[in-house]
Amino acid sequence: MTENHFDAVVTGLGLLTPAGIGVADNTERVWSGVPTAAHTPALEGLPVDFSCEVPGFDPVQVLGRRTAARIDRVSQLGMAAAREAVADAGLDHRTWDGARVAVVVGTSFGGAASLEREHDTYREHGHELVSPMLMVTAPVNMTAGYIAMDLGALGPNQVVSTACASGATAVGYARLLLRTGACDIAIAGGSEAALTPTGVASLAKMGALSHRRDDPSRASRPFDADRDGFVAGEGAGMLVLERLEDARARGARVRARISGFGASADGHHPSAPDPTGSGAERAVRAALADGGVAPAEVGHVNAHGTSTPLNDVTEAALIRRVYGEGPAVTSTKGVIGHLIGAAGAVETAYTVLAVERGAVPPTANLDAVDPDVGVDVVAKEQRRVGIEAAVSHSFGFGGQNAAVLVTAP
Prior knowledge:
Blueprint: E1 8-17, E2 20-21, H1 23-32, E3 38-39, E4 50-51, H2 59-63, H3 65-70, H4 73-88, E5 101-106, H5 112-125, H6 142-151, E6 157-160, H7 166-180, E7 185-192, H8 197-205, E8 235-243, H9 244-249, E9 256-265, H10 278-291, E10 300-302, H11 309-323, E11 328-330, H12 333-336, H13 343-357, E12 359-360, E13 383-384, E14 389-396, E15 400-407
Parallel strand pairs: 5-6, 5-7, 10-11, 10-14
Antiparallel strand pairs: 1-2, 1-8, 1-9, 3-4, 7-8, 9-15, 12-13, 14-15
């Protein structure tokens, strides 16, 4: 470890994803490698009419009718995940010092569904029927704000929007707040609910999405030779982070440590990754250096692994250069699709669970690894392996990159 090394410890997790509601459901489905993509009625008639939705989530039952009616789905998911994470950490928001609790949330589109709905209302019925709540549901900052209101978290309250790296960047920033003493507890993660017809149509037109309409459950296939794009998804993942001494003092369970974080920019293209992978590599190497961990010590990589032709080979080359042949690689997007701004947070949570369980989940739908990949991708079934250090990769549109280093407790 470096002299100035700092660990934030993970004491709580909360997950609402296409793999299920809660950590237990997510663990069962993701580690079983069962994909979730399916036809989506709201997308009927589009060139891509399938996605990965959170199943069976009733915001009224979870949040109450009044709250659920006043906020966008992105905030509903984020609030529910934050509640689970806080409960999992053994914390009671009714008794904590809220001024010492921070909230950092990553999202890319914010309240996209509300914005699209109210735009349709305006076009069809005029300005008089536009909801006055739009300006407190659609902005990207509101999920963090509503979590603070719900849990009495009165410390630093921030939103991070770095496209598909948003959730991972939020975790990294929350660790920094703990490191500087700005808070004692941080609720950090990401939420996204942008499965709107306009958003999905745009992604389809730009060629980012799989067009496997005849068999959507097989569409998300990271690192597979037959991949043709990603599947859009929704969901939220939240982590409770604390300083190690504080967690120990209250007798909390430490699930894992967030030991390093790195961020960088490609400065290359609005949507395509730099084919050299140099920008993403800088983020990964910065995370390892921050944690004082040598590349050879990393036993597992949760890859960004979008299932697009360019991303997967570029990332695989990066993995070979940085880690060599050592780590067991997976992309959980094969199961849950691409959660955009929430992806990095959810995948960091899965990385925590992999370290905790000593098992790497399989990459769903991986029938034949692309010969240009050349890394050890876990397929078909989970792999039992002791993991002392693991890294979660997140690379976003705009060339914004983040990497989170997770180590065993």
